[in-house]
């Protein structure tokens, strides 16, 4: 069975690739979780973030958007000190900030999912890559979405982060053609 090469021999990365990466999600809580984790990854490796995912879930009440939006500075400091999360305080604060931004988007669009998936006409973009090194780090679309998220007040949502997010939540299928997870059309 052929597969994408980027997970390497890391069991956690392989499981994430095989069961989760690129699977279309329309669930606001999950979309918020992945946006948070992708933002936390900025400047780090995805394997580090995945190794801390359970701690993030515990610290942020399974990424409950309302809960995260109500966190105060003392609670955010407590998360930094007492949970195995990335210790970058601006990234921790961005969870509260971005949760508030998601709540505003939900009011305007009915859901975070509606807002995001409208960028791809509510269906995944299926790419045609022969090798992993062909994948772009960002696209015009991720740049456009990044700009709008920033305009709406989101933090840690640069175009590279947003492209990774789009791949993660299935807005873009970037599995190589020979990978068993690639969508056939």
Number of distinct beta strands: 2
Helix content: 40-55%
> What is the arithmetic mean of pLDDT?
96
> How are the strands of the biggest sheet laid out side by side?
1-2
Tally of individual domains: 1
> Rg from C-alpha positions?
16 Å
- Please mark out the parts with pLDDT under 50 across 5 or more consecutive residues, or reply none: none
Q: What fraction of residues sit in β-strands?
A: under 5%
Reading the helices and strands in chain order gives HHHHHHHHEHHE
Distance between the termini: 19 Å
- Please name the CATH architecture: Orthogonal Bundle
Main pleated sheet: 2 strands, parallel
The helix count comes to: 10
State the name of the first-level CATH class.
Answer: Mainly Alpha
* CATH topology assignment: Endonuclease III, domain 1
- Tell the overall outline: globular
Structural class: mainly alpha
Full CATH superfamily name: Hypothetical protein, domain 2
Oligomer kind: single chain
Task: Describe what this molecule looks like in 3D.
The protein is mostly helical. The protein has a single domain, classed as Hypothetical protein, domain 2 (Endonuclease III, domain 1, Orthogonal Bundle). The chain is 54% helix and 2% strand. The chain has ten helices and two strands; from the N terminus they run ααααααααβααβ. The chain has helices spanning 11-19, 28-41, 46-51, 53-59, 65-69, 73-82, 89-109, 112-117, 140-151, 159-168, and strands at residues 125-126, 172-173. It has a two-stranded parallel sheet. Helix 2 runs antiparallel to helix 7 (89-109). The longest helix is centred in the middle third of the chain and has 21 residues, at 89-109. It is globular and about 50 Å long. The chain starts with 10 loop residues before the first helix and ends in a 12-residue tail after the last strand. The mean pLDDT is 96.
């Amino acid at each position: 069975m052929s597969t994408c090469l980027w997970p390497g021999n890391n069991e956690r990365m392989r499981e994430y690739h095989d069961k989760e990466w690129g699977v279309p999600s329309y669930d606001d809580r999950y979309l918020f979780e992945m946006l948070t984790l992708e933002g936390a990854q900025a400047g780090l490796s995805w394997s580090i973030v995945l190794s801390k995912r359970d701690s993030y879930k515990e610290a942020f009440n399974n990424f409950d958007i309302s809960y995260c939006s109500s966190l105060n500075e003392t609670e955010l400091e407590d998360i930094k000190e007492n949970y195995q999360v990335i210790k970058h305080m601006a990234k921790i604060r961005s969870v509260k900030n971005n949760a508030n931004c998601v709540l505003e988007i939900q009011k305007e669009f009915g859901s975070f999912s509606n807002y995001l998936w409208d960028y791809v006409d509510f269906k995944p973009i299926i790419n045609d890559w022969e090798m992993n090194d062909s994948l772009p780090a960002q696209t015009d679309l991720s740049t456009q979405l990044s700009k709008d998220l920033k305009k709406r007040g989101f933090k840690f949502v640069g175009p590279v982060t947003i492209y990774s997010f789009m791949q993660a939540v299935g807005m873009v299928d970037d599995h190589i053609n020979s990978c068993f997870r690639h969508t056939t059309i």
